[in-house]
Amino acid sequence: MGNHRDGAPERSGAVATSGDQNQEQFPDPGLPHHEPRLTDLDPKRAKRAERQVSWLFILSIVGAFVFWIGFFAIKADGDMFNVNNPDPTSNLRLQNLLLGLGIACTMFGIGIGIVQWARTLMPDHEMVEMRHEISSEESRASAQEIVETIIDESGIKRRPLLRNTMIGAIILAPLTFITLFRELGPIDPKVLSHTLWDKGVRLVRDPSGTPIKASDVTLGSAYHVLPENILDISHEDGYLEEKAKAVVLLMRMDPEELHVSDDRKDWNVDGIIAYSKVCTHVGCPIALYEQRTHHLLCPCHQSTFDAANECAVVFGPAAHALPQLPITVDSEGYLVARSDFHEPVGPAYWERGKQKQEMASEA
Fold first, then answer.
1. Is the Cα torsion angle 181, 182, 183, 189 positive or negative in sign?
2. Do residues 53 and 68 share a domain?
3. Is the pTM of this model over 0.85?
4. pLDDT tens-digit profile of 178-216?
5. What is the CATH number of the domain that holds 291?
6. What total number of domains does the chain contain?
7. pLDDT tens, residue by residue, 220-274
8. Smallest Cα–Cα separation from 165: which of 46, 64, 42, 38?
9. Is residue 36 very low, low, confident or very high in pLDDT (cuts 50, 70, 90)?
10. Which end of the chain is more exposed for a tag (fewer CB within 10 A), N or C?
């Protein structure tokens, strides 16, 4: 045995070294055997695969048009011919179906189409590209050659049907999302500064429209309520838009558990409080109330608000507390609003602070 006391790995035999002899024992195996696909051998199968990919791109285009039909043609207060509909919820269900189906077909068609194109028509053989020194002229020429090779191997030039349907799908698919994002909220946030709530307007149950007495609201209960004057507005005059802004969640808890600031002392009635249902994140409707913790939960992105602490945000992406509706009781014991909200409802736009000041000055 040799002397291993110095511990050098190259002399201890514990580590394999790469010498010329070892390199000769492991020759370059080369590229693996390439098994051609059926579309590589049979032009008819290649043509069939091309048509399949084109049909998938066409499905994506059709899905985009289905989305726009649902978005622009289906109205809650009538159909595409503006005929009054006694049941607007049926049109809402149809609209949601078309929107979801349209986006699903748009994304499915373009996604599966590209995958199928790569699997059946684009070259799948392995290749070796030798590394070379970087130089400006050679780099440009090499890059240009790579781009031309990709375009040639993709078959775009010699397959016009596939190329044209792909271009149409790629152009129309993003437009569906742009259309959808455009309607997430009003362009002018001042639209959310005022609702139908006003001094003396009664709180009524949604959807029955019956007014609510303070004695009807038991401890731990919660109601979805609207302003009574919304019942006088038709769908043609913007009923749904006004409802979306004015809808309120009414709750009752032990007054001793409420943490009320000095300027809101008279905004509740013996523990009965009312807050906007419109989440301050992106405007989703808040509908979940946990009696034990007094938390309100937005189902869209899990923003959580503490109703016992003036609906301050305790979790989630929302950046602003829910606006509170000041309430009192009238001479007959019915719950009524003291005024409109003192701040804008809905998503917390960056102009919220300025709008809040303007609303306070108007009041």
1. positive
2. yes
3. no
4. 777 666 655 566 777 889 999 999 999 998 899 999 999
5. 2.102.10.10
6. 2
7. 899 999 999 999 988 778 888 899 999 999 999 999 999 999 999 999 999 999 9
8. 64
9. confident
10. N
The CA distance from 276 to 97, in Å, is 28
- Beta strands at 327-329 and 312-315: parallel, antiparallel or unpaired: unpaired
Q: In this structure, what token pair is assigned to residue 245?
A: 């802004």
Q: Is the pLDDT of residue 154 over 80?
A: no
Q: Could you tell me which residues come within 8 angstroms of residue 348 by beta carbon, excluding any fewer than 6 positions away?
A: 280, 281, 318, 319, 320
Q: In what order do the strands lie in the sheet with 248-252?
A: 203-205, 222-227, 248-252, 272-276
**24 half-sphere exposure, CB direction, 13 A CA radius:** 3
Cβ atoms 251, 293 nearer than 8 A: no
Q: Are residues 185 and 346 in contact, defined by beta-carbon separation less than 8 angstroms?
A: yes
Q: What is the domain range of residue 213?
A: 189-362
Q: Is residue 29 part of a domain?
A: no
Q: Are 253 and 218 in contact (CB under 8 A)?
A: no
Tell me: do 163 and 60 sit in the same domain. Answer: yes
- pLDDT tens digits for range 283-295: 889 978 998 999 9
Is there a single domain that holds both residue 140 and residue 211? no
Q: How far apart are the first and last CA of the chain?
A: 99
227 vs 223, 322, 353, 363, CA distance in Å? 13, 18, 25, 19
Structure-token pair, residue 335: 């719950």
Q: Are residues 169 and 222 in the same domain?
A: no
- Shared domain for 147 and 219, answered yes or no, is no
Per-residue pLDDT at 88 exceeds 90: no
